Amino acid sequence: MSAQRIPWQEKLQEQCRALQAPPPIYKEYSDRRGGRTAWTVHVHIGPVLFAKATYWYDGKCADKAKDDAAENMLKRLNGAPTMQAIVKQEQEMLMQQQQAQQQQHQHQAIKMEQVRSAW
């Protein structure tokens, strides 16, 4: 007799409880492709943390998209001691991204000023 497979969604729910995190919220997204519609899922835990399904799925396989997103989220949570540590890591990553964008905008503004002054 084979062992019952535990869906990734259930594993994620258990991990959230263990981390004392809010329960996962799944959001479905669709994209019309020719005569068919493809579906994908993003899973959110709290206001900062989210993960996407790796693939787009046919409508009758939408639950697979949820499992896919849950698996990706579990990979992000893997080894995290607390939800606070995860949120702190995510916030630091967002700050680094914002700083990089600001630097890029400043660099573009300097280039534009150099072009203007050359005229």
From TrEMBL:
Coiled coil: none annotated. Gene3D superfamilies: 3.30.160.20. Residues 96-119 are annotated as: Disordered. Transmembrane segments: none annotated. Residues 96-109 have a biased composition (Low complexity). This is DRBM domain-containing protein. It comes from Phyllosticta capitalensis.
